[in-house]
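Proteins fold reproducibly. Next comes a concrete instance:

***
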Amino acid sequence: MNLKEKNIIVIGGSSGIGKAVAQLAFDLGASVTLTSRNLDRAEKVAREIDSSITGCQLDIDNENQVQDFFHLLSEIDHVYIAAGATKLGPITESTLEDNMLAFNTRILGSLRVVRAVYSKMNDLGSVIFTGGVSTDRPISGAWVSGLATSTAEQLARVLVMEFPNIRFNAVAPGYTDTPMWDSIMGENRLNILSNIAETLPVKKIATAEEVASAVTFLMSNKSITGEVIHIDGGGRLV
């Protein structure tokens, strides 16, 4: 894979898969800008990777911020959208509006980015969304995540015909060893992930770096569009 001198934006790039994509893209020769809702966090992670990387504040739930952010950029080759939250709980609890906030970040946030970036993309550049194993293997209490990941994956298909000069793809990670699970699984995180790994055909949980390699592959292969790559250890099959 060669991303030398490509301009890459990683949205939600301050931790987990997004950070791994920013690191790998830089290692492959790209010029990288990463974003986070927290400016200090974005700048800190950017410095950790390399002084040439730019860290910026961006909340894709905010239309004005998205428009202002991309207004300052030009000649974009690839955008990876890692930003997205999860929501756990029964469908009968809280209001639907509150429950769907996480869904809206993943979907409306992604569409805001596409609307802001399409005129600045170089031909056969790409936008890559983040789906997940919950599309194929929904679990009780994670209905918002299942809706969000399936819709994010569908974006990679429906947008191809809207903007044929841009490639749209998605990655669909399974359980991945990232800090996101700390707040969900707490102190039992390692044990829970270990038990999940035993149910998978490959007997291991994916790393953020393994997902990042799929993202950069989609960026570098100009003949792939409208596709979803699963990095779930076969989790959707069992």
